[in-house]
């Protein structure tokens, strides 16, 4: 149980990287990048977790009640928003690439050698 | 490099890294039972010094506000990049309807979809504003509220169709919202420079703990983030939707 959150995070990183390495399609690759990013969420939230503690919001609990780490939660929050917009930027790049070259397979996109016109 | 070579290099790297990761995992501090000095410090000081119940918001908008400023401009940069990429080839014409697939007839929307989204879109937008406003007291804030408001805009498209959506939600309005939000956040930081205090100093009265209007300058920063996120995500949705316009695919466009 002690090692489980860290192992889940490492597993997400590994499986995402595996997907990126074997990817034959840029949309699939962007999806794998999101999986890799999910590993950071699990790692950060696990690092800030504390047993028998409340969420770091002192509205219905008095200030001073043991609470989990708010710093990593703020990091994950910005991580998710930035991740979503960067994914959109990458998808826009993939869309433009498909319009220009007619493919999304990295192996078909050798620079200079196999340029397709139109 | 072909696929086999890539897989081989990946496997070699794994063979080296996996034992290291296993050793590392076994030596990490006990899950949920180690000291959190920085977190505890903020949990103790946020309600007392900043009069803010939500410590996560206090980190985002006060203790580490400069990070959120950077993140705000990262968001602005990513959205601008997407818009420039997609719009540069397409132009800003909006006469052909979007949301179509070639060779598939465009069916009229069912009354059920229109009815449900007409009911839900305003409620969702209101809920987004509520979540954004209560960022200092309950789980929520500009990021979450902004995304909910943007999803209400998507519902307007679902219920009313492309033409009405473009008419009621012109993309220039959301471009401006996105930029204005980021600018508002940056100006919040500059306000304290005018009186000779460090960038992003919380100048305004802090209010009382558990009050919606607590946190001083954090409220205005929160509003800036709400505008930027709601505008940014609506612009992104709009740009990808415009890509499905029929005239985008024809060769003479």
Structure description:
The complex is a heterodimer of chains A (118) and B (253). Chain A is an all-alpha fold and 118 residues long. Chain A has one domain (4-108): Helix Hairpins. Helix content of chain A is 62%, strand content 0%. In chain A, helix 1 (4-22) packs antiparallel against helix 2 (26-47) and helix 2 (26-47) runs antiparallel to helix 3 (70-101). The radius of gyration of chain A is 20 Å and the shape is elongated. The mean pLDDT of chain A is 88. Chain B is an all-alpha fold. Chain B has one domain (7-249). Chain B has 9 helices and no strands. Chain B has helices at residues 3-27, 37-49, 55-63, 65-90, 111-133, 142-168, 171-194, 217-242, 246-249. In chain B, helix 2 (37-49) packs across helix 3 (55-63), helix 4 packs parallel to helix 8 (217-242) and helix 5 packs antiparallel against helix 6 (142-168). Chain B is globular, with a radius of gyration of 24 Å.
In brief:
Chain A contains three helices and no strands. Chain A has helices spanning 4-22, 26-47, 70-101.
Features:
heterodimer, A: 118 residues, mainly alpha, Helix Hairpins, 3 helices, 0% strand, elongated, B: 253 residues
Unreliably modeled segments of chain A: none
The tally of beta strands of chain A, per DSSP, is 0
Distance between the termini of chain B: 37 Å
Largest sheet of chain B: none
Helix/strand-derived category of chain A reads mainly alpha
Furnish the topology, listing elements before pairings.
The complex is a heterodimer of chains A (118) and B (253).
Chain A: H1 4-22, H2 26-47, H3 70-101
Helix pairs in contact in A: 1-2, 2-3
Chain B: H1 3-27, H2 37-49, H3 55-63, H4 65-90, H5 111-133, H6 142-168, H7 171-194, H8 217-242, H9 246-249
Helix pairs in contact in B: 2-3, 3-4, 3-8, 4-7, 4-8, 5-6, 6-8, 7-8
């Amino acid at each position: 149980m002690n090692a489980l959150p860290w192992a889940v995070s490492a597993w997400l990183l590994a499986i995402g990287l595996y997907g990126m390495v074997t990817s034959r399609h840029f949309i699939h690759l962007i999806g794998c990048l999101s999986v890799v990013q999910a590993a950071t969420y699990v790692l950060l939230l696990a690092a800030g977790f504390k047993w028998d503690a409340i969420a770091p919001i002192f509205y219905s609990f008095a200030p001073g009640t043991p609470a989990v780490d708010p710093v990593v939660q703020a990091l994950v929050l910005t991580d998710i928003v930035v991740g979503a917009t960067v994914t959109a930027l990458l998808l826009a790049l993939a869309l433009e690439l498909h319009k220009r070259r007619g493919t999304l397979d990295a192996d078909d996109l050798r620079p200079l050698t196999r340029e397709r016109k139109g | 490099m072909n696929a086999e070579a890539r897989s081989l290099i990946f496997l070699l790297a794994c063979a080296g890294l996996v034992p290291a990761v296993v050793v590392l995992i076994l030596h990490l501090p006990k899950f949920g039972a180690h000291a959190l000095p920085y977190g505890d410090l903020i949990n103790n000081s946020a309600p007392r010094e900043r009069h803010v119940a939500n410590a996560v918001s206090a980190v985002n908008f006060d203790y580490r506000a400069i990070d959120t400023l950077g993140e705000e401009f990262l968001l602005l940069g990513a959205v601008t990049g997407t818009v420039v990429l997609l719009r540069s080839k397409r132009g800003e014409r909006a006469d052909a309807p979007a949301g179509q697939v070639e060779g598939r007839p465009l069916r009229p929307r069912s009354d059920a979809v229109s009815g449900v989204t007409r009911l839900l879109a305003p409620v969702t937008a209101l809920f987004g504003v509520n979540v954004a406003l209560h960022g200092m007291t309950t789980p929520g804030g500009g990021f979450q509220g902004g995304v909910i408001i943007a999803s209400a805009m998507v519902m307007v498209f679902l219920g009313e169709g492309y033409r009405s959506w473009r008419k009621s939600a012109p993309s220039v309005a959301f471009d401006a919202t996105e930029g204005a939000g980021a600018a508002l956040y940056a100006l919040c930081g500059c306000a304290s420079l005018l009186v000779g205090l460090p960038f992003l100093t919380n100048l305004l009265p802090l209010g009382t703990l558990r009050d919606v209007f607590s946190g001083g300058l954090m409220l205005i920063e929160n509003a800036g983030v709400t505008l930027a996120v709601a505008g940014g995500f609506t612009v992104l949705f709009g740009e990808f939707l415009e890509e499905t316009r029929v005239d985008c695919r024809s060769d003479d466009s």
